[in-house]
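Task card 7
Instruction: Convert sequence to structure tokens.
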Amino acid sequence: MRRLFPIGLEKGTFLLAEEDRHHLFHVLRTREGERFLLSYDGKEYLGEALPETEGIRLLEKIPPRKEGRRLVLHFPLLKNGNDELLVQKGTELGVFSFAPFLSERTIRRPKGDALKKTLERFRKIAREASSQCGAPRIPEVREILPFPQSFPGFPFLFADERLQGEPISLKGALSSLEGDEVHACLGPEGGFTDSERKLAREAGAIPLSLGPRILRAETAGIFLSSLALWMEEGAL
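Output:
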């Protein structure tokens, strides 16, 4: 069943953004009575289409589902659209929130309006991917920050084996972290600099091993994103 993300609820009818409304009723030719899942104000609902008013009538509230631990993925801007791919696939896999950053070796470095448009693009991709895969919520995409300002303020996973200390496995890392929210950080093309590793270590980074192979940044990101499915189901 298709999922929608309305922008309002008035007198038992969900209101849709103009783009969503046009696509639903003028492109897809949605018929009266067709049913949809809706995510609004942190809750889930079942609704049916009202073509005459181009809205969705509320039918019932869906009981809240049990949630596992939430994954926040910190990633650098990547070239050739690979960061957009990461947001799309991460959303499909269940990443709770994305925290993009600019490191010293980040190759793609938009500024001003271009940086703002990059963030808007990430958020649009997250919204579209959430609708496509039936996710119960749209993951937050946080402001794009310089790497030193992107740390969560408590221990986090750091996918860079050159960080001082013995790298640990994913299972070991997750079992050592407390709280409902797990933050994981991956590096840019070319890796982190020694000064960035030092900053990360001082901020509480836990060196993480992703196995014996050298992974491209986007591959490492998708690999880490897959953790969200496991944590959501309570397996890790």
